Structure formats: structure tokens, C-alpha cells
Amino acid sequence: MKKTSKNSNAKVPGMELNSEDAEGGRKENQSNFVDLLPLEVTFNIFSQLDIPSLCSASRTCTSWNHAIRNNDSLWKPHCLSIRAVCQREVDDDIENGYTWRVILLRNYQKSKVKNEWLSGRYSNIRSPVSLPEKAMCPMDADTWGEILDAELGREVEKLQ
């Protein structure tokens, strides 16, 4: 049995993926490609979208939202790409039985922030006041340990 998020209307910051957005206030187009094309073709079209575009498409109408939200194979490639930065976090979520969509929602922002930290983007900042707001997000001790190890590695390289 797969776990779902406690908040079924979870959000990726700056992008929303919930059924209320698709159902509220937007007129349904009775003849859109999701309703007309075979599912394989529809999913092939949606699989070409990046994460922000996929989230935007899910807000277009109820049928698009349903097709995107309920097709876990659309989310898997995006999860595997963020796994390059958040391997431990994604692997733990897979082991805990989360769906690919939920794994992405749980780790997307963290992967962006963690990648900036690991790449040294904030190495020369000497005061927390100088950090941009987006540079912070909830991360566990192991993640901060990885960031600290990367920072210490950069400092050692400078000294050599």
C-alpha cells in the first residue's frame, strides 16, 4: 500500500498541484485532447513537460489535472533527476512507499536549495542576514552534514 501525503493538496513552492485549482472557476472544455486521444498518447505529450509546466498543465482543467495527478510515471523521471542531489532523501521516500508525485513534492525545493549550497553558491556569505530567503528550507541534520562536508572540502582545496 502506497503512502500519500497528509495534505493531498501539497505544493511545490511557486507551483501548485491540487484538484481544487483545476475545479474552481475554470470552465471545462468538453473536447480537449485528454478526452479524445488514447491514454498512451496523452501521457507521452505530458511526459515532455518539465516540472513547472507539468504543474501548470495540471491546473488547466479537471481532466488534465486528473490525468497528470494520477499518472505516477509522469513524476518518476523528475524524481530520478532530483535524486542526483537528494539521493538519500529520495531513496528513503521510495523505501517508505511514497508515490513518485509525493516524493517530488517532498524533495523538489530541497533539491534546488541543497544543490546551490553544495555547489558553493553561499560559500562566501559571512552573515545569515546576507542569505537570500530561498537559500533556506527545512533540512535534516544529515543534509546539513553533507553541506558542511562540501564546505570543508572547498576550504581544504583553497589551503592546498
UniProtKB/TrEMBL annotation:
Polar residues bias locations: 1-10
InterPro entries, per database record: F-box-like_dom_sf, F-box_dom
Chain intervals for the UniProt region annotation (Disordered): 1-26
Quaternary data: Part of the SCF (SKP1-CUL1-F-box) E3 ubiquitin-protein ligase complex SCF(FBXO9) composed of CUL1, SKP1, RBX1 and FBXO9. Interacts with TTI1 and TELO2; when TTI1 and TELO2 are phosphorylated by CK2.
GO biological process per UniProt: protein ubiquitination; SCF-dependent proteasomal ubiquitin-dependent protein catabolic process
UniProt pathway annotation: Protein modification; protein ubiquitination
Keywords: Cytoplasm, Ubl conjugation pathway
Function: Substrate recognition component of a SCF (SKP1-CUL1-F-box protein) E3 ubiquitin-protein ligase complex which mediates the ubiquitination and subsequent proteasomal degradation of target proteins and plays a role in several biological processes such as cell cycle, cell proliferation, or maintenance of chromosome stability. Ubiquitinates mTORC1-bound TTI1 and TELO2 when they are phosphorylated by CK2 following growth factor deprivation, leading to their degradation. In contrast, does not mediate ubiquitination of TTI1 and TELO2 when they are part of the mTORC2 complex.
Domain of life: Eukaryota
Leader peptide range in chain numbering: none
Subcellular localization, as worded in the UniProt entry: Cytoplasm
The keyword Lipid biosynthesis appears for this protein: no
PROSITE patterns, per database record: FBOX (PS50181)
GO cellular component annotations of the record: cytoplasm; SCF ubiquitin ligase complex
Entries under PANTHER family matching the protein: F-BOX ONLY PROTEIN 48 (PTHR12874:SF9), F-BOX ONLY PROTEIN 48-RELATED (PTHR12874)
Protein name, per record: F-box only protein
